[in-house]
From TrEMBL:
Record-level Gene Ontology MF annotations: glycosyltransferase activity
Source organism (scientific name): Fragilariopsis cylindrus CCMP1102
Lineage, top ranks: Eukaryota, Sar, Stramenopiles, Ochrophyta, Bacillariophyta
Domain spans labelled Exostosin GT47: 324-431
Protein name (database record): Exostosin GT47 domain-containing protein
InterPro entries (UniProt xref): Exostosin, Exostosin_GT47
Family: Belongs to the glycosyltransferase 47 family.
UniProt xrefs under Pfam families: Exostosin_GT47
Amino acid sequence: MRLRTIQHDAIRARSEQNPKTLKLNWKIVVGISWYKIVAKQHALREGTDTTDDTSLLSTEIMTKIQALTHELENSKIRYYVYDDGGLRLPKIRAQANRFDKPWAWKARWGKRFEEYARGEIRWLESLETSTLRTRDPLEADFFVVPIPITATHFWGTTSDRTTALRRLLFGWNHSDSNINSSNNSSNIDESSLFRRFPEKHLAAISTSEKLINWLGLPEAELRLFRNSTLVNDADLTRSDDWLRDQNIIPCDKVEKHGHFESRWFRNVVTLGYSFEAGNPSFFYQPVTMDAWAQKSNWFFYHSRKTPSICNSTIFRHALLPGGHAETLMAQNMGSNNTNNSTNFTHVIQGFRHQPVSIGFDIPYEEWQQKFINSKFCLVIRGDNPGSRSLFRAIRAGCMPVIVSDQLPYYQPIYINTFPDWNDFALVVPEDIFLADPVGSLDAAVDALMQSKLALERKIEGLRLLQRIMTNDMSDSLFVPALAKEILIATRSK
């Protein structure tokens, strides 16, 4: 994702009024479309514009978003999903969907992956029930293997997992004779499809970090997947490349999971989001201009009091009581006031856009009500490069404000499908945010609100992303978007 920087008049004016609030030349990171929009506006104000391109403010983003929406709504991609019960593992799926207590997972760490497992099952079920599914292997653009990989770690055994994988690799005669394959109602011999078309197979969906490392197969058998595709939720290779380009040493407190996926699978398709986007228990509000405009809070951000790892506390607590914004405000005012309550009130009142809901954690019902009633939701870097708050914001129709330089590289959202993060979110660099936490956010919103047309296009992009990421709604575009990414991957090498 290429980002451009611009000098913003509102920030310049703010710094001239109070030079102590500015220790560097302010820049707001925006996408290429924003760069053109603001340049056009500046030229019109200065009387230096010599073009008659009045459509610039509305067409570039609108064209690609509308074109992508039309493409996905009219997708002609066809894929085949195995019917065989020895791959679908219906008993394990049923235990997961009934919210049975996991009996196979003994370790304390990784309990959160239980919800990842259910999310993967929901995705498989969406693929199984979509109209894009074909029952004819000969007309399939690719094949989907419906093994619920992560669920086998919680409600199954290593044998369940390895038996299903070997059943795929070597045919039904290598599988456990006790497996019930009566689910196959198509009367199609599926047992040789993988050996005939390995390069056209989506072999697994696994978003549970290193659990995919524990497939239970020896290397000789893992090599048989080398021509197939895997779907996960993060791009470790792209993230590591970005860290290296920025000369940043990875946080040594975050466990390194290696690059198992790229070692054993030719193609790795990155969703860029996890189960949270399609979690039916989490509230959902389709975003429109009218619905967004009626939200009462401008900014929403609440975080725990305990510190974060990887030097993230200064970012996560910057706007909170006792945080960096209070320190800057006291310095700028030449004050020695140590009353945190008073200082925090000054920070909150410092936002030009009011009201805001910012502070430490609050009761869930209150949190939910304020969250869904906010225009902008802050997504600030935390313990690891990923972010659940991003998915929750998108699902709730709250425009994300990204304060996490690594996030767009760690979780690129469908790099072949969705054009750019700047088409649905505001992106504020970490150093800009720390220099003035309040001012940087106000300036980002000011830049967006200059043009109603530009705001409409951003809302349009956010709405499309809602439809792509949520698989539990009637107008979901999850399946055609995922199918497009898989098809591009399987044909790319």
